[in-house]
From TrEMBL:
This is ADP-dependent glucokinase. GO terms for molecular function: ADP-specific glucokinase activity; metal ion binding. Signal peptide: none annotated. Coiled coil: none annotated. One of its GO terms (biological process) is glycolytic process. PROSITE patterns: ADPK. PANTHER family: ADP-DEPENDENT GLUCOKINASE. It holds the Pfam family ADP_PFK_GK.
Amino acid sequence: MEWGPLILAFALIAAAYLYGFNLKSTNTEPNVRQVTSAESQVLQGWDQQIQEPAERVKRVAVGLNVNADLIVSATSLLDKLGIQPAVSQDHTLLNSLKDLQESFAFFFESGAAAERYFANGEVYKRIIEEADKLEQKEYSVGGNAALMAYKMAELTDDVQILLIGPIGPKVHSLMPSSVNIHETSLRDTDEVHLIMEYAKGEKWGALTTPIATRFITSHDVANAELDGLNVFSSSVKEFNPDVVMFSGLHLLDSSSQSEQQNKLSALVTELKKLPKSLPLHLELASMANEGLVQFIVAQVLSSVHSLGLNEQELGLVSRANNGPHPDITAEESGYIEIGAVADILYWILTSLVKGQSSLLTRVHFHSLTFHVVATLPNQWDNSVSAVGVGARIAGRQACGDVPIQPSKVTLRIPKAFPLSADYAPLRKTVVIVDPSNPLMTWKRGQVTFHFSPVLVCKKPGKTVGLGDAISATAMLYTQYMQRL
């Protein structure tokens, strides 16, 4: 008889039982017991555990994708377009209203965030015109690079930020004045991306979505061309930043394979012009093209020091490159298996990018319910605080509250979990969650994992840009040791 699974099952049951009594109480009057919620304990734990880095980041260069986001209610727009649910099927590229209906239904039903390129510019123009007629709409800064710059400027007054990319008049007017914009980045028109948001439990026809999130689509020419790449390294050198953060590679989804390879090769050429001691962070975004992911891994990943991604991108990276747990997905609650995530992060840092020439030593994973920063030794400092800050900003931005109100958020991670799904020594190690000490670390070989739960907003006001806010905030608290 196999005793291992039985012992693990008993351990998990015992851990869950113990966790039920792990809520602290305070006595303000005799014989009166007040219980502090798990959410309140996490907030207090973050305040106690998060520490400032020994040396703060002072200058950050950010590129390359910049656009204006047009944010609307997904179901309101679909109703205006006369689109109702029928077939549910994902399309890597959208060419018609039918493609939009089928792809949106696919992700709405599962509650997964997604971004798909609209290849037909005329149809996309019609959709934007109808979206602009809605009474409830909002224009905001969009594009991963612009959102990272915007969030950092919002959070601090003492960090100098340079934004590189195609910046039109609407984005320019919305961007904080503290963000430096070189004249070579200014354009006559904005690229507009459509953000179709929906709430948890929202209905569309016979479909009901389990999670609040968004579907993004665009017909973006400038960012798909990596406009601004030709001045990227020269602008960065002139600015002399402490760290460089860039994104936008997902917008190559619509290009041919030869164009993808040529653009990525040009990007690597630009990156190699920068000092190796200057940390480079690549933020991935929603993609459907496994071939593009393979190109990014083969051509770009070894030239960056840090990588940021969510559960959809993590699964795609693993699936496209024969990694572990290729079918990893989030459950209806938004929870994804922590041990399986750790297995993939370990594989990325130790097997996916090989060779002494690789610079990659950090991966920042963020999901709805928890975040993990995985690092190699002697490269990064203050990572446990960085993962905590990133998790905290997710709740703040989703709910729009600073500080977070405990009654408006919920702790959704399991009460106990193993540290691996396929590595026996850690699969047998069960962690009991202590809300009062939310930040934790563990090791597998040379890889250290830094973990924080997220306080999930019950009724989020805004879902777009959370990943960018998370990565940008965490980077302000991260210290790259090789630069000192």
